[in-house]
Amino acid sequence: MLEQRYRWKNKHLRMHVSVLDGKTSPTILLKNALYLNQTFRKWMRANIWICEDRIVYIGENLPANVKNCEIIDCTDKILVPGYIEPHAHPFNLYNPHTFAAYASQFGTTTLINDNMALILNMKKKEAFSLLKDLRSIPTTMFWWCRFDSQTEVLHEEEIFSHSNIKSWLEHDAVLQGGELTGWPKLLDGDDMMLHWIQEAKRMRKQIEGHFPGASEKTLAKMMLLGADCDHEAMTGEDVYNRLMQGYMVSLRYSSLRPDLPQILDDMKRLGIEAYDRLLFNTDGSSSIFYEEGITDQMIRIAIEKGVPVIDAYNMATVNIARYYNIDHLHGNIATGRVANINFLSSIENPTPVSVLAKGKWVKRDGVKVEDAYPSINWAPYGLKPMELDWELTMDDLQFSMPFGVKMENSVITKPYSIAIDVSGDELPTNHDECFFTLIDRQGKWRINTILKGFATKLSALASSFSNTGDIILIGKNKQDMLHAFNRMKEQGGGIVVMENAEIVCELPLKLSGIMSEASVEELMIQEKRLFEELAARGYSFSDLMYSLLFFSSTHLPYIRVTQQGMYDVMNKTVLFPSIMR
Question: What is the Cα–Cα distance from 233 to 236, expressed in whole angstroms?
Answer without folding.
Answer: 8
